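Practice problem: Class I SAM-dependent methyltransferase
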Amino acid sequence: MTAWTEGYVADIPYSLGFYRETVPAHIAFAAVCVGKNPGLALRPHRVLELGFGMGLGFLINAAANPEAHFEGVDFNPLHVAHARGLAEEAGLSNVSLREASFQDLAHEAQEGQHDLDLIVLHGILTWVSVEAQDAIIEIARKRLKPGGLLYVSYNAMPGWAAVLPLQRLMRENAKRVAGRSDLQTSSGLDLVRALVGEGAAYFKANPALQPRVEQMGKLDKNYLSHEYLNANWFIFHFADVAEMFGRAKLGFVGSATILENIDALAVPEGVRARIGAESDPVFKETLRDIASNKQFRRDLFARGVATPNAVEHNAMLGAMRFALATPRAKVSFKFPSPVGELDGNAEIYGAVADLLAQGSASFAEIAALPVFRQGGASAALQTVSLLVHSGQVLPAPVRGPADPAIDAQPAQRFNRLLAAKMLQGRAYGFLAAPLAGSGLQVPQSELLIFAAVLETGGERAATAEAKGRGETAELAPKVQTVTDHVIQSLQRLGMSWMKEGKTIVDPDESQSVIQAEVEAFLTEKLPVWRQLGVY
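Answer key — structure tokens:
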């Protein structure tokens, strides 16, 4: 490795990703959920992402929130070039991207500069040197405004404790293998599997590692290289992270993972009373981590954000807005949680889904539904929290009556670009949803269909109203046109259609399956995307 990398894997790019916890509207809702003021995250004017990787998530946030300026810093020129290329092709004017180290940024920042409303850094804290960690704190101290929020995620104790020897094994093995980091990772995985098969006592003494090892074989090699081969690899106790950001005058707000703030849904029943009785917020989080064997934390910190009184909090919560991100017929009321799968009351959750299927709604409008007459706002909040946690509902930007309509054009240009990239064989896996200020995870099959829809004009036919009026005759030729385009794209790209993880080889079966999925996409998924401003 060359000196500029500081031991960080830089010979291959990081994997593509979008993380909803970095979305301003999600951060604001998470803060309100724990009774805190969302501060400047509610309507940020300037956002900084430290270590944006390939930049997909950064650009989705920028495209979906055009009223804010997004500043991105990454020290890998490959990452910066990729993100800058996408931004320029999509014509995103509210971004600035820079190749620099965190130390560079900290050195240049002025005392009292305070020009940032929100800082986000996803996962990077685990992988950088102590000097870079100190620089992150200096950046927050000098540049985050009073009232600003910071999101940071990292590998956590105690859940990663047993993995420490595994990471060191992968790292030491990599030193013996010539070539790129992904090849070193493949060699390390082969060694790990061999040691498991040969009965190494470490793996026998830590049976929880078995599913991790199996999962590692399915994960993207670029991600694994960054996760396991970095020279700097820190697994943090929450108390240490709280002390670290405390040096920048930042106090803990809560988890950006909504469910983790609700002990009844996040920790075993036997420890809830002990956690509930603890008044020290830092030690309370330590107890929660032990109780849940926490592996990964997504923390929110704030600089001088006050706790509102009950009246103020109710007003803040009532103003929060939400949008449905999945077709109403596909909304599930079964929710995975740390304490097991939860079954939501169909009448209650169905009423919320029905309301949001008509368009975005405020929390006050949701809480006013007849199904919440008995449970009130607390029942409504738990319902919305579970729907948000499941990804089926998205927190949306809060708008005042005098605010202009959200400009969806930057996001739509960006989405058209990603669709065009799909036809070139590059699957980015996400699209921007500007009316929710967020992004959507999109399977490769749906990206292909969406690209075909855009190229054939089929989106003009696929409205919920048309389906409701039974206009199947009008829809049929468009389904066929889009299907033909998808099949041609598959042939050009040398790809086969997949269904339930299996490749469809027979051409007639492939045609039939694709046509059915195209029709479902046009009549079910596309109307939801229209509501979210995707196109």
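Discussion: Residues 170 and 188 are 5 Å apart (CA to CA). Students who identified this feature from the tokens alone can consider the problem solved.
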